[in-house]
Amino acid sequence: MIVLEGIDQIRHIPNAIVTSGTFDGVHIGHQKILKRIVQAAKEENGHSVVLTFWPHPRFILFPEDDTLKLLSNFEEKAAIMDEVGIDYIIKIEFTAEFSQLSSEQFIQEVLVDRLGTKKLIIGYDHKFGKNREGSFEYLKENNKRFKFEVEEIPRQDIDDVGVSSTKIRKALLQGNVDQASEYMGRHYSLIGTVVSGKKIGTGLGFPTANIQLKAAYKVVPKDGVYAVKVHMKEGTFDAMLNIGVRPTVDGVNRVIEVHIFDFDEDIYGQELKISFINYLRDEMKFDSLESLKNQLGKDKKESIRILRQQ
Predict the structure, then answer these.
(1) Is the bond leading into 55 cis (omega within 30 degrees of zero)?
(2) 184-224, pLDDT tens digit by residue?
(3) 205-234 burial, b if ≥16 CB within 10 A, otherwise e?
(4) What span, in angstroms and rounded, lies between the C-alpha atoms of 103 and 105?
(5) Which intervals hold domain Riboflavin kinase (predicted)?
(6) d(Cα 118, Cα 13) in Å, to the nearest integer?
């Protein structure tokens, strides 16, 4: 797969079968569209091309609104698209200036003049251009003038999977990480660096790695305890993770900390990827550290039971 950075890098691609969008999370609904353009590219002896935008348009259009959290960064999106079999990703920098581009300008300047699109495939509700004025109907009415075919993924094909990025975010914020995994076709993950903590877990016999997230704009699941998988250079390990303020010992700052099973090495400064497998329980305040320690032992046993089934 080839990644082209920015509009200036776009070049004519023979028999380009194109789709466009933000594709946050690249969930199973998105994957239907992506698999269709891969199939169409094979049928046309062409190349599958995804036009995607970064940063997310809402970050630019509504900079004062920090409520939107994303399911994936660009690298994560690109990795999934590569697995699906996409030939080209064109990463378009979304700027205030770009947001003023009309649908007519976007089609003519990007899809026609630069890319030489043969066929455009979009979801049933896809809109593009300034104020989202472009639509499938507009494209169909003008396809002879633009000289490329247009195909819309039927509403039923998308709705039958019952998935949206909004639904996935909601599931994560409710702790339903297994449901989010079903929607995404893979486990939801966070990436972060191991930083120094207060070593409270070590004193309880459950040493933890405190995680500083790589991307602050990503969705952090509901506070609580989770069974997780930890991926790092030493390999993949079973673990349990806590998100919250640690009310028994702290009660102030929200932290993400992970206890990796059967592992005792110095990993400060290392980057970890954490895959969320199952939600165990809410974060709780215990009467004593001994009660907390007993509960952590139960959490570990339950995590091991769940993770062995994966």
Answers:
(1) yes
(2) 999 999 999 999 887 777 778 899 999 999 999 999 999 99
(3) ebbbbbbeeeeeebbebbbbbbbbbbbbee
(4) 5
(5) 183-308
(6) 9
Q: Which residues, 6 or more positions from 10, have their beta carbon under 8 angstroms from its beta carbon?
A: 4, 90, 110, 114, 115
pTM beyond 0.70: yes
Shortest CA distance to 191 belongs to which of 162, 228, 149? 228
> Which residue in 65, 52, 63 sits closest to 25, CA to CA?
52
Sign (positive or negative) of CA dihedral 185, 187, 189, 194:
negative
Where do we find the tokens 């028994």?
248
Tokens of 135: 């639509």
Residue pointed to by tokens 């409270």: 200
The stretch 148-162 carries a mean pLDDT of 70
Collapsed DSSP state (helix, strand, coil) of residue 286: coil
Active site residues: 257
Q: Both tokens of residue 310? A: 């994966």
- Residue 235 carries which side chain, given as an amino acid letter? G
69, 73, 246, 255 from 216: Cα distances, Å: 8, 10, 20, 13
Count of other CB atoms within 10 angstroms of residue 141: 11
Cα–Cα distance, 111 to 10 (Å, whole number): 10
